Amino acid sequence: MAIDGKTELYGIIGNPVRHSLSPVMHNAGFADLAMNRAYVPLEVKNIKEGLTGLRALGFRGVSVTVPHKEAVIPFLDDIDPVAEKIGAVNTLVFQPRQGGQVHVHGLNTDWLGANTALAEKVSLAGSRILVIGAGGSAKAVGFGLIEAGAEVIIANRTAESGKALADLLGCTFIPLAEVTNVSADVLINTTSVGMEPDNEGIAVPPSLLPGFSVVMDIVYAPLETRLLREARAAGCQTIDGLAMLLYQGIAQFETWTGKKAPQDVMRLALEEELQRRAA
Ligand code: ATR
After folding, report:
1. Ligand 1 centroid to 81 CA: how many Å?
2. Are 146 and 152 in contact (CB under 8 A)?
3. Which pLDDT value is given to residue 278?
4. Which ligand 1 atom is nearest residue 201's CA?
5. Domain map of the chain by residue range?
6. pLDDT, tens digit, 9 for 90 and up, residues 175-190
7. Which atom of ligand 1 lies closest to the CA of 139?
8. What's the 202 CA to ligand 1 centre distance in angstroms?
9. What is 8-108+244-278's CATH number, 3.40.190.10, 3.40.50.150, 3.40.50.10860, 3.90.930.50?
10. Residue 191 CB less than 6 A away from ligand 1
């Protein structure tokens, strides 16, 4: 659809942000539904000024990425209770109000993305889930899993941050070096281990993998990480990193548009963009 005076504006704010796959995904969705909307990457250094600019320019919704997911919170008009508990926001909705005011609501769809991807393969309530890593992604994923009634174990290389996240979530911590002592139904890698150019990297010993029924990686470049390749060979069901990216995006799209997202079109757009970049 051609951009014109009626085009509604969306985007992603972060720094860096030029590598983001979200524009390709959301623009494919808008085009498929013939919606006059456009989604652009916006490199924002100062979040307070960035938000003022977005309000003034009439943006209707934005995704928020590193390093602004936590820093944006003080500048919102209200925040979803789960996002508040997680302490991070990845989605903003701008609602024009009478008198020219713009109300900004923040929510978090990262945890929904992980839960939706997992729920296709496993029932989360009562499952034992080993989460590798203790950064921002592990925090959102861990909160979501606990929200869904799963039992979570955090394994991390650095004990201090691993314990801190486990305390926050009210779950168990284990040092990454001792992960071979753990048995669980699901393994989720939230670290960057295995991401290009570290293609042969793997966060846990491959000998551990036959014990899991589902193995999920949040790394999507390469799409099949060594972790997923070894897991598939060990007979586990696997979930690739595009699944979480896609489902968190679908939740954003549906929040912004109130319409069912064209999931297959959005996934295909992501896959084609990854292939284009790899060529
Ligand atoms: P994000 O916000 O994407 O989760 P992050 O906050 O930088 O990113 O967190 C990265 C996570 O990956 C951390 O848990 C980190 O472990 P440490 O706390 O020990 O730093 C983990 N990580 C990164 N590289 C790793 C590696 N080579 N081996 C094990 N864990 C690694």
Report:
1. 26
2. yes
3. 87
4. 27
5. 8-108+244-278, 111-239
6. 999 999 999 999 999 9
7. 4
8. 13
9. 3.40.50.10860
10. yes
Work out the average pLDDT over 69-89.
96
CATH of 111-239 given 2.60.120.760, 3.40.50.720, 1.10.287.1080, 3.40.190.10: 3.40.50.720
CA of 172 to the centre of ligand 1 (A): 18
138 CA distance to ligand 1 middle (Å): 9
Give me the mean pLDDT over the 67-93 stretch: 96
208: nearest Cα among 243, 177, 172:
177
Q: Mind telling me the catalytic residues?
A: 69
Q: Answer yes or no: is the C-beta of 161 below 6 A from any ligand 1 atom.
A: yes
Smallest CA separation from ligand 1 atom 12, residue? 191
237 C-beta closer than 6 A to ligand 1: no
> What band does 217 get if pLDDT is binned at 50, 70 and 90?
very high
Number of Cβ within a 10 Å radius of residue 170 = 9
Ligand 1 in contact with 11 (CB < 6 A)?
A: no
Report yes or no: 143 and 82 within 8 Å, Cβ to Cβ: yes
Per the prediction, the chain carries an average pLDDT of: 97
Atom of ligand 1 nearest to the CA of 161: 18
